[in-house]
Amino acid sequence: MAKIIDLPKLSPTMEEGTLVRWAKNEGDSINVDDLLAEVETDKATMEFRAFDKGTLLKKLVAEGQTAKLGQPVAIFGTPGEDISSVLASVGTASAPAPSTPAPSAPAQVSPAPSAPPAPAPSAPVIEARAVATGPAANAEVPTAGIAGLVLLPPKRPALPTGAPGGPSSPRVRKLARERGVDIERVVGTGENGRITAADVERTTASAASHGAPAAASASVGARRDDEVKPASQMRKAIARRLVESKQTVPHFYLEAELDVEALLSLREQMNDGVDPKTGVKISVNDLFIKACALALNAVPTSNASWIDGNIVLHHRVDISVAVAVEDGLVTPVVRDADRKSVSAISTEVRELASRARAKKLKPEEMQGGVFSISNLGMYGIDRFAAVINPPEGMILAVGQARDVAVVKGGALAAGKRCSVTLSCDHRVVDGALGAQFLQALRGLVEKPVKILV
Questions:
Q1: In 3D, which of 42, 3, 5 has the Cα closest to residue 236?
Q2: What is the pLDDT of residue 206?
Q3: Going from the N-terminus, what domains does the chain have, and what CATH number goes with each?
Q4: Which residue, among 321, 176, 329, has the nearest Cα to 239 in the 3D structure?
Q5: 398 falls in which pLDDT band (50, 70, 90)?
Q6: What is the pLDDT of residues 312-334, one digit of tens each?
Q7: Counting C-beta atoms within 10 Å of the first and last residue's C-beta, which end of the chain has fewer, N or C?
Q8: CA-to-CA distance for 18 and 368, rounded, in angstroms?
Q9: Is 426 part of the annotated catalytic residue set?
Q10: What are phi and psi of 58, to 5 degrees?
Q11: Percent of the chain residues topping a pLDDT of 70
Q12: Residue in 251, 314, 315, 426 annotated catalytic
């Protein structure tokens, strides 16, 4: 019997995914745990493995197309099986739900005598609705469900000719995003006002011929020769989480200048004689990761998060490390950084960063951090402030090591300084507590032999 395969949740924050590559072809036999496809989520490119077995009869999402969580992406069954009825249901399932919820009981409005009632679409539309009790429960009778959803008779009347904002398929909405077209402003010429790909293309061509951007959403600050680039799943997630962080987390910032002359000297000694082709050279960031881990142990009340209205004190030191990738950044986690040697941290960070850039990190490798480090010193940045990665309580922004004039023994001398900025969640870390953490960090960085103990 044919079955519909939905897009599963491949990362904890996933809401949609872009199908990068199909690993199987139509007609292939599929076993449980076979690699079915690769899907780009908000975190990385993940493997989509089969939960069922059967023959892949139909692909419902093309490579490069974006699908919502739970959207049908394939049909499994037996070779030669008739899936026409399932395809009809899937076509219904991909249609958008009405933009406004239907009333609990139909309104008693008489149509104008001159206007015949609008014909209802031939197929039902998926609509989420609470189940009514009492007499109102008999007002509507649901038909069969698909993938746990209830199918109700359509409530949306046919749009009048020439009205914008009709229904559209995911493929058409994706095309509209790529063209920078506001789908709500497109006039559909399909059945019951449905917007087709040709309608989107016509809108794009019309806007270009009039020297105007295709849509209001792309018109702010955009010109005809500007490129409107659809955001990747990762960039959408970054945008969403950063806005959430700045809106919900009360940030405050503490800045300090650290003497890193001894730290740089220690790094040079550790790397002396290391073959870059076979050995791993220690970076300044590796030393800062270990120093921050030990500073959290020295000031345990700073190792905290605000979760569901409670202060959670962590008894582990899992450090998130910001890694720049093509579409933004990810934060793989170094577990138990306080218990690992600097060389072990260095090896692990490089391996995590390499897989991050290849989009091969597992979701669990980017979750559970208690503290973050973001280092832009290699880009020549002196100082900056980073945005907290909830639910972590702090993030340290590290600038470059600079040659500065300092006073030593009452006389001017050459020195090395590095600016660090600690962003704190004021709900769990007060100013004095954040200052205590920076004091502990200063003691470790300026006397780095303690980092190796």
A1: 42
A2: 64
A3: 3-93 (2.40.50.100), 235-452 (3.30.559.10)
A4: 329
A5: very high
A6: 999 999 999 999 988 788 999 99
A7: C
A8: 25
A9: yes
A10: -155, 130
A11: 79
A12: 426
